[in-house]
Amino acid sequence: MKFTKHLIASAVLLATSSLAIAATDSTTIEINVTKDAYVNLIGNLSGNVVTPLTLAEVDNTTTTLGTLGFESNTTGACTITFASAQGYKLVHTTDNTLDLGDYSIEYAGVTNSAASSGNDYVATTCNEAVSNLTITNPALPAVVIAGTYSDTITVEVTTQ
Fold this sequence. Notes:
1 helix, mainly beta, 11 strands, 3-stranded antiparallel beta sheet
């Protein structure tokens, strides 16, 4: 009986000690990869471009300045805005009272001019093949004063 008591005591001790030894722990690991959004103008007018024109190209005519499009890694729409530093006039570089009249630009069916500035082009996607950007000028005056006439158009594409 003494042996049985020791055996029972040992079994109880072994059973309770195995409960005390069991432990658990867990963790969750979330993995994230982030790619920054981008949108780029493409075409031969992307970047800082100087487009020299002749008088014949701005005398009562429409002239293609070049091509413009955009690409992006985002979903949704993109908006292209146009702004003219000189109010859509080719202004003499040394005498700002002289200009060649109001002109307009057209891109993908959207026209901007002094009378209609702020017209944005909205594309349903942010990936669009290049299209022509054109300038339309009125007839030049009979005498054009010598010098350079210029304006700077700022084009900005924004993802929505």
